[in-house]
Every structure is written in C-alpha cells, then in structure tokens.
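Structure ticket #2291
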Amino acid sequence: MVIPIKYLFIFLSFFLWANPKAFADQPMQVVEKWMSSCSVLDIEGMVSTYFEDATSFLTTHRELVIGKEGVGDYLRRTTATIDPKTMNCHFKAYTNFKNSDEQVTIAGWDKLTGAIEGVPFINEGRTSFILNKRSGNWKISHFHRSPLPAKKNIKSE
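Resolution: structure written out below.
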C-alpha cells in the first residue's frame, strides 16, 4: 500500500497542531545542533543557528560581537589550529527557562576537548544561549561563554 505524499503532510500537520509539546523542544534542538556542529568544527553549521543580528560575548573576545558574520569570523579565527578530528563539544543544560512564547534562556556547563598541533586540551566553561522565535523559527539571538576559573590549591593552616 502506497500512501500519497499529501496524506503524509496532512497527518504530520495534524499531529503537530494537536500536539503542542512537539514544538516545546525546538530551542534545545538548536543548542544541540550548535554543539554537534562544534564537535566536527562545522563553523557554518554553528553560524546557521544564529539570527543575522545576534550578539555574542565569546570566550576570549573582549568586545561584544555583533552579527552572525562577526560570530563566524571569530569562530574561524579561534579554531584555525584545532584538529577537527579530535574536537568534541559537550553541553549540560542546568536551566531551560521559558521567558515567553518567543524567548527561552538555556544555560549550563560545557566541556570542549581536542588537540592543537598534537597537544590535547580540555576547556570547560559556563555557557548561556538566549533563543528567540521569529517567523516561526527558533535561533540564537545572544550567546555567552566564559571559561571556568582555574582551580586553586588552597592549603589550610
């Protein structure tokens, strides 16, 4: 039995309309796409998750990066020496706060690992995404990442 394509679309449309929870996870899916793109150093994949007018405070940048193009330039520059085959990006969300029907804040910890010129690195950080919904699409409107402070050995006296 072959189901015509139009019936498949009708079924999917009804399913999504009748199941509003189907849309509830879309912001987290954007974050997951960002992280999976990061894990293979797919800069264009990462940049595609941002709105054109997005802003970012990035790990080593001292200024607010404005615009999707600026984010892409920063990411290309800072990852140029990383071996893409060694890269891994993990994110654990600790908050997923719905600010409104059009805005969500997702924050947590990330762990980036890889190798630069054969030397392994581990970089853990605090990461937050503010995602907005425009014209039915969720994308990043603001991203912030800062490295975790270095652990200090404090001797008690």
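Closing remark: The chain has a mean pLDDT of 84.
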